[in-house]
C-alpha cells in the first residue's frame, strides 16, 4: 500500500486554505496545518489530524513543522507589510525540511507595480522560481466571496469597495480551493503558473443578476474609500506598526480598480477544472440556500 505524502497548509486559518483543506479532507489526504491561532479540535473535526502553532516569520518553527511533509501550500494574510518575508521564510523552511513541492497562492497580474500587494507577491514568485524547489504558482482573481449576498438581499443594496460601473474579474473561492488541491496532489504541474479567473462584471451587472435571482430589487453602491481604509487597515495589519502600510495598500488597490478595473480570462481555469468555472449566480445561489 502506497503511503500518501503529508500536505502542509501554511496560514491554514485563511479562507482560501479552508477551502483547500475541505477538498483534501474529502479525498482522505493526510494534512498538517500551521498558523498562529489555530483550533486543533476544529481542525481535527475538519479532517486534519496534525495541527501546529507558530508564526509565519519563525523560520525554525516553520521548518520543524514542515519536516516529513511532501508538499507545502503557502499563502500569506492579505495586505501585509511583511508578506515578502513570510513567503521567503516559508520557501527557505521548505528547503531546510527537504520538501519536494511548493504550491504558492499568489494573485492575478502580480506584475502591476502600482499595487503594493501585487508587488509583494511578485517578489515571492521571483524567489520561489530561483529556489530550486519544484513549484506551482496559482494566481486567483478577486473573489465572489467578497460580496455579501445575504446583506445585499436584506437591505436591497450591494456594498462594493470600488466603482460600480467598472468591470472587474472574479473567481469563486470554491473553484480556487479545488485547483490548489489538484495541483498539490496531481503530477504534471511543476514549474507552472496558472491564472484563475471566471467572469468579468461591473457592480451594476452583479446587482442585476442578484435582482433576477431573488426578485428583490438590488442596487449597487460604492463605499467611501476613507471608510473602507478605516475599517480594514487595523483589522488586516499584522501589527500596529504595519497599519499605515496596509492603509496605503488598500488605497492603491481600490483606486486602481476605480480607474482601470482588473479583468481576467477563464480559459486556464476551465481547462484545470474540466468544466465551466462557477459564476456569480452559482455563488449567489449557494449563499441563498
TrEMBL record:
Domain of life: Bacteria
Domain called NmrA-like: residue spans: 39-234
Signal peptide span: none
InterPro entries per UniProt: Ergot_Alk_Oxidoreductase, NAD(P)-bd_dom_sf, NmrA-like
Protein name: Uncharacterized conserved protein YbjT, contains NAD(P)-binding and DUF2867 domains
The species this protein was found in: Rhizorhabdus histidinilytica
Amino acid at each position: 500500500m502506497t503511503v500518501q505524502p503529508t500536505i502542509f497548509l501554511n496560514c491554514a486559518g485563511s479562507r482560501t486554505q479552508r477551502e483547500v483543506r475541505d477538498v483534501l479532507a474529502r479525498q482522505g489526504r493526510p494534512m498538517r496545518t500551521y498558523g498562529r491561532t489555530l483550533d486543533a479540535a476544529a481542525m481535527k473535526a475538519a479532517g486534519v489530524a496534525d495541527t501546529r502553532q507558530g508564526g509565519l516569520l519563525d523560520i525554525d518553527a516553520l521548518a520543524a513543522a514542515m519536516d516529513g511533509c511532501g508538499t507545502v501550500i503557502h499563502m500569506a494574510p492579505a495586505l501585509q507589510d511583511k508578506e515578502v518575508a513570510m513567503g521567503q521564510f516559508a520557501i527557505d523552511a521548505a528547503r531546510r525540511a527537504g520538501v519536494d513541492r511548493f504550491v504558492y497562492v499568489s494573485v492575478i497580474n502580480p506584475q502591476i507595480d502600482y499595487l503594493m500587494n501585487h508587488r509583494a507577491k511578485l517578489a515571492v514568485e521571483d524567489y520561489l522560481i530561483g529556489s530550486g524547489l519544484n513549484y506551482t504558482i496559482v494566481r486567483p482573481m478577486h473573489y465572489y466571496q467578497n460580496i455579501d449576498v445575504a446583506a445585499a438581499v436584506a437591505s436591497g443594496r450591494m456594498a462594493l469597495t470600488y466603482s460600480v460601473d467598472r468591470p472587474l474579474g472574479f473567481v469563486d473561492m470554491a473553484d480556487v480551493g479545488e485547483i490548489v488541491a489538484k495541483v498539490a496532489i496531481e503530477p504534471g504541474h511543476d514549474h507552472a503558473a496558472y491564472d484563475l479567473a471566471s467572469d468579468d462584471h461591473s457592480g451594476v451587472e452583479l446587482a442585476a443578476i442578484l435582482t433576477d435571482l431573488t426578485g428583490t430589487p438590488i442596487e449597487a453602491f460604492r463605499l467611501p474609500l476613507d471608510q473602507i481604509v478605516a475599517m480594514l487597515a487595523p483589522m488586516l495589519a499584522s501589527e500596529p506598526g504595519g497599519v499605515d502600510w496596509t492603509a496605503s495598500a488598500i488605497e492603491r488597490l481600490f483606486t486602481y480598480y476605480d480607474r482601470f478595473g482588473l479583468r481576467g480570462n477563464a480559459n486556464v481555469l476551465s481547462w484545470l477544472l474540466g468544466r465551466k468555472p462557477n459564476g456569480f449566480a452559482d455563488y449567489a445561489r449557494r449563499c441563498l440556500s
